[in-house]
Amino acid sequence: MSDCAHERGHITDSMFYGDRYATPASREIFCDVCRHQRWLDIEAALATAQAELGMIPEAAAEGITASAHIELLDLDAVRDGINTSGHSLVGLLRVFQAACPDGTGEFVHLGATTQDIQDTGQALEIRDVLDEMDVLVRRAILRISTLAEDHAGTIALGRTHAQPALPIGFGLKPAGWLDELLRHTERLAELRPRVVVAQLAGGAGTMAGFGSQGLELLDRFSHRLGLGVPALGWHVARDRVAEFTATMAMLAGTAARIAEEVRVLSRPEFAEVSEAWYHGKVGSSTMPHKRNPERCEQVVVMARLAAAQAGLALTGMVGDHERDSRSLRIEWACVPDVSHYALSAMAIITEVLDGLTVHDDRCRQNVRRVADQVASERLMLALGRHLGKQTAHERVYELSQDAQDRDVSLRELLDADAELSALLDKEETELIFEPSGYLGASVELTHRTVRTARKWLAERPIPAGGP
Fold first, then answer.
1. pLDDT band for position 289 (50/70/90)?
2. How many CB atoms lie within 10 A of CB 81?
3. Which in 72, 256, 325, 459 has the greatest CB count within 10 A?
4. In angstroms, how far is CA 153 from the centroid of its own chain?
5. What letters, b where the CB count within 10 A reaches 16 and e where it falls short, cover 348-384?
6. Is 376 among the residues known to form the active site?
7. Residue 461 pLDDT greater than 90, yes or no
8. Catalytic residue at 409?
């Protein structure tokens, strides 16, 4: 083994594979050192709010704030303090207190409990993740809107249970993705006021350590950090974190649904779409011809990993009495992980969509190959006007199943059936077996969804210089 420091044990931190499991933004949000800086910022905010209320001297708050910079602390001493004390915050507090000038460190963490600081820090992390996800989702919506609009009327094969169903406008597929993402934007907006809130309730949720000023302190503390104000402490009420984690997993799931559709439609048997490819990209170490949909597969992997984190977060909802650190310690793993995976999934699928090509000719060819099969509903409805729907279904069922068993044309068997063919004139029969005339409301539905998306985008422009 080399003399490496052995500090990259998680796949998201791998110098070789980490970029497939996390994003630069997610790694920055959940950086180990950055987390401790965030806790220092929270301690400084607490001290400042307490000084405003006369709970501690103003000079104490100034000294605490001036010292709340991670580069001023001995991080080795912090780590040793954590290991020695067996406590997740005391090591930092002791080193921080010693770094504060003129005894001002005596006022650090006054009246607060460890979980107040750590839950508030996690709320700030969640806020940053939501900000990042908002930008990625907006960019995905923008790209999908264009894709759906450009191919609203492109004839394609609709499939159910992996079998030919009916002709559709290809744009209806991305319109479905778009509609789902728009629902996620509602979830993201609605969960913020519930989830992105501070924690400052003291050892058992009573705020007793803050005397009579606990409620006013909570307001000032929360507003100073840009967080919502909870009605009361939520040390064991972990529904907020469970909601966030589940929503992230759902977003990754939507990205995976898109990715899986692209992956399947890019198979040579279909060849209806293709991912962008560049010279030098290798699909196999032994088969030089391979152009694998690796990015689509990675999105599905991210969704599966994200879904697993949602289950963990739900187990964290079960805690006893007024404090239970088991939930918090689960969240320290599942909140960063679901954020890495969901942000990665959305970033990758947006790249896939940016380079996606829809092969209109192949879409049409695939419909033509099964034109008789996908005409069965239209034929049934036409005959139903003469025979009744149920009887027409039975007759067309027998014809179409016989056609598939004998590998002959449904149209041929219809023409050979004197009773049924007599019910339809030649012009009507020609229309029935023309797939392009049976797209239903595909085009209108697609354009309606795109209009909704573009209206939403116009009201929330993508920030410049985002991810």
1. confident
2. 18
3. 256
4. 29
5. bbbbbbeebebbeebbbebbeebbbbbbbebbbebbb
6. no
7. no
8. no
